[in-house]
Write a structure and sequence with these properties.
Order of helices and strands: EEEHEHEHEHEEHHHEHHHH
Strand order of the largest sheet: 5-4-1-6-8-7-9
Shape: globular
CATH superfamily of one domain: Spore Coat Polysaccharide Biosynthesis Protein SpsA, Chain A
Structural class: alpha/beta
Oligomer: single chain
Number of helices: 11
Number of strands: 9
CATH architecture of one domain: Alpha-Beta Complex
CATH class of one domain: Alpha Beta
Largest sheet: 7 strands, mixed
Helix content: 25-40%
Length: 276
């Protein structure tokens, strides 16, 4: 049984275009995506890794990177990400599919191994470490069977579900055997170590510099130690709201009001609240 990892990647990020190939470790010339791949290669429970980018010319540098690094890649639709995943998994013969995004340079290989182990031993159809979030933002990983991926590809037509690969499963949990990986007595859900903005990227460069020579640099706990030893670094991206897809307009408006107030745009926030 083959467990493969699909790394979802594109160069046209709305907040920080080209972020995944930005240099993160200037000493070793490692990009954000390079750090992701390096860590995935250390995961013991993964049999294969593929970069899933789009057919857009903007993503040509991702293909060049994959070819240079000897990595498998698949090019597909930008908006129908479900189709891209299904075809990538089909091409490389995956039985189980791990989904990772390319903007998480501090992925912990041991967390991925723990999730895959939980999934296999529990005979689940889907498992994630985000169902009950206790890990930092930036350690997100999920796994599902190829059969479930195929079923969604053949049966879901909603644009939201096509764009957000696993959202059908997470919105219909009663229809599937679901596994959840969470820390027992710890909660780091407010820690943000993903790269979505220039401030996130700056923080990631700082953390990389701190952990470069650490023997256990792949452990997320080593990253957490950086925040304890250098508490000022948490201010670098403190005002960044975690990007999220909302189920209702009311949820999205509430998030917009919160963001406006973080930027001290209180009058705009008040107008938005009043009109909605």
């Amino acid at each position: 049984m083959k467990t493969g990892c699909i790394v979802q990647a594109r160069m046209t990020s709305s907040r920080l275009p080209g972020k995944v190939l930005r240099t993160l470790d200037y000493t070793n010339n490692i990009s954000v995506l390079g750090s992701v791949v390096e860590r995935l290669r250390s995961a013991k429970m993964l049999d294969h890794v593929v970069i899933a980018c789009t057919i857009n010319a903007d993503d040509d540098p991702l293909v060049e990177y994959a070819e240079r690094e000897g990595l498998a890649y698949y090019r597909g639709s930008e908006n129908d990400v479900l189709d891209r995943f299904y075809n990538a998994a089909t091409k490389y013969g995956y039985d189980n599919v791990v989904r990772i995004t390319s903007d998480c340079p501090f992925l912990d290989p041991s967390v991925i191994d723990d999730l895959v182990t939980l999934f296999l031993e529990g005979d689940y159809q889907y498992a994630s470490n985000c169902i009950r979030r206790t890990y930092p933002h930036g350690l997100d990983c999920e796994i599902l069977t190829y059969d479930v991926l195929k079923w969604m590809h053949e049966n879901t037509t909603d644009k939201f579900y096509r764009e957000h690969v696993t959202s059908y499963v997470t919105h219909h949990q009663d229809e599937f055997r679901i596994g959840s990986l969470a820390l027992d007595d710890e909660d780091y859900s407010k820690v943000r170590i993903t790269v979505d903005t220039i401030n996130d990227y700056t923080l990631a460069c700082v953390i990389t510099d701190f952990i470069r020579d650490k023997q256990d640099r792949y452990s997320f706990r080593t990253v957490l130690d950086c925040f304890r030893e250098h508490p000022y670094i948490s201010n670098i991206n403190a005002d960044i709201m975690q990007k999220k897809k909302y189920d209702t307009p009311e949820e999205e408006i509430a998030a917009a009001v919160k963001m406006l107030r973080l930027q001290e745009m209180d009058r705009a926030a008040a107008i938005l609240e009043k009109n909605n």
